[in-house]
Write a structure and sequence with these properties.
Oligomer: single chain
Protein name: HD domain-containing phosphohydrolase
Distance between the termini: 38 Å
Helix content: 55-70%
Shape: elongated
Number of helices: 19
Pfam families: HD_5 (PF13487)
Order of helices and strands: HHHHHHHHHHHHHHHHHHH
Largest sheet: none
Keywords: Membrane, Signal, Transmembrane, Transmembrane helix
Number of strands: 0
């Protein structure tokens, strides 16, 4: 376990002290704190958080404080700010924490959540038309705007505090720590705010606090479905990671190559206007396009001298091997066709099926361009990486014969707009250590001259 830096511990302590200062007015004699409502909401929130630790629920329970935020926001809408801050404390201290250090993380939650709840209560009361008097049935429509303001304030405080912990504990720069934090979480918290408002209105209705529990069931079910989706997605990522790591271990020349081809494929997909689902499938296709190397003898992948025609034919089987390996992985969808056909050429001189033009699956045409681009812009033991502009120019020269011109233009536009910034791989090696060859059929092709076929079999 990595030690928490002293500055991060001091930051957490400051958050806890600030939370205590926010809650202190509620503890003063004569403050008029509605202790009954505070106790009920605090007990409800703590009980909800305990569901995530229940053995019966196990890993099926949604994890994280976001699952039951409506309870905290309902408290912010029903109670004075200092009292609303108290609602979060028991659940924060008793909630499920899976990462170490557990005690410090619980203390951190006990600091940030009361601060966010207090801010939400202030924003709700200060908004035009806001205040706890508007929670009656007649005033419900007018409470929507104040409720959204309260939820936004809750989200803003959490984003600011989370960015600070990334700066102090993870040593991130302020720019990267706070970038996108608020925008990514604002919409979900606005939904939580509407659920919290429904709870508050039912709480004030003739049916009383028990009726407000009806809001939690559909909210919990939706959180459970969302958590299941993310667990399934994590399982997909783990499967892909394991396959890529196996290829990297077997062929030292492709370390980092798969991830970069996946990234370039997504850049092309975005320029083509593909939706997020298709972008994700293309990313899988780019990452796994070389998985068939697991079926190629290691001695051929690591051979130092030139390949014989027979050895070249064996390496050229790797797209078919890869397609067979992933045939039963349902979530890959069209990515399987890209794995099989990413070495086809527009003029029909590619392999393994000799497809031409539009008969080549669209995903395969995308991956072919991404694969070629990374091959040319990566360093080999026998040559240095080519400049990005040179690689794009060569792709354009080969468009129509080897590559789909539409895909080449999309990659060029994406690079002009965003640049190309290969990341360092997880093992610390420069990602430019890898690349496969491009064109076993076209010895006179300019792309083939820049990136001759190597042990990777033309990636």
């Amino acid at each position: 376990m990595r030690a928490v830096p002293p500055i991060a511990r001091a930051y957490i302590l400051c958050a806890v002290l600030a939370a205590a200062a926010c809650a202190a007015p509620a503890l003063r004699p004569g403050a008029g704190t509605p202790w009954g409502a505070v106790a009920l909401l605090a007990l409800l929130y703590a009980a909800c958080e305990q569901l995530t630790r229940c053995p019966f629920m196990g890993r099926r329970a949604p994890t994280g404080m976001g699952s039951f935020v409506p309870v905290l926001l309902a408290g912010a809408f029903l109670l004075p700010p200092s009292a609303a801050a108290l609602v979060a404390v028991p659940g924060a201290l008793l909630g499920r924490v899976e990462q170490h250090p557990v005690r410090l993380r619980r203390l951190w939650h006990a600091g940030q959540l009361p601060l966010a709840s207090c801010a939400a209560a202030h924003a709700f009361g200060a908004s035009p038309g806001g205040g706890r008097d508007v929670l009656g049935a007649a005033g419900f429509p007018y409470a929507l705007l104040p409720a959204c303001a309260g939820a936004a304030a809750f989200c803003l405080v959490l984003a600011v505090l989370d960015g600070g912990i990334l700066v102090t504990a993870e040593r991130r720069s302020p720019r990267t720590a706070w970038r996108g934090l608020l925008l990514r979480s604002l919409a979900p918290y606005l939904v939580h705010g509407l659920a919290g408002l429904m709870m508050a209105v039912l709480w004030r209705s003739p049916y009383g606090p028990v009726a407000s529990l009806l809001v939690l069931l559909p909210m919990y079910v939706s959180c459970w479905v969302f958590a299941q989706y993310h667990r399934e997605r994590a399982a997909h990522q783990a499967t892909i990671r394991a396959l890529v790591q196996a290829v990297d271990i077997k062929d030292r020349y492709t370390r980092g190559h798969s991830e970069r081809v996946g990234r370039a494929s997504v850049m092309i997909a975005r320029e083509l206007g593909m939706d997020e689902h298709r972008q994700e499938v293309l990313r899988f296709a780019g990452i796994l396009h070389d998985v068939g190397k697991l079926g190629v003898p290691t001695r051929l992948l690591r051979k130092d001298g030139p390949l014989t025609p027979e050895e070249r034919r064996i390496i050229e089987l790797h797209p078919e091997y890869g397609h067979e390996m992933v045939r039963g992985i349902g979530f890959l969808g069209e990515a399987r066709a890209a794995i099989l056909h990413h070495h086809e050429r527009m003029d029909g001189r590619g392999y393994p099926c000799g497809l031409a033009g539009a008969r080549i699956p669209e995903y395969a045409r995308v991956v072919a361009v991404a694969d070629a681009f990374d091959a040319m812009t990566s360093t080999r033991s026998y040559r240095r990486a080519r400049p990005v502009d040179t690689a794009v120019a060569e792709l354009r020269r080969c468009a129509g014969a080897q590559f789909d011109p539409r895909m080449v233009r999309a990659l060029a536009r994406a690079i002009d707009r965003h640049g190309w910034h290969p990341a360092v791989t997880a093992d610390g090696l420069d990602p430019a250590v890898v690349a496969d060859g491009l064109d076993p059929a076209g010895a006179g092709d300019p792309v083939a001259r820049l990136a001759p076929l190597d042990r990777g079999g033309g990636s």
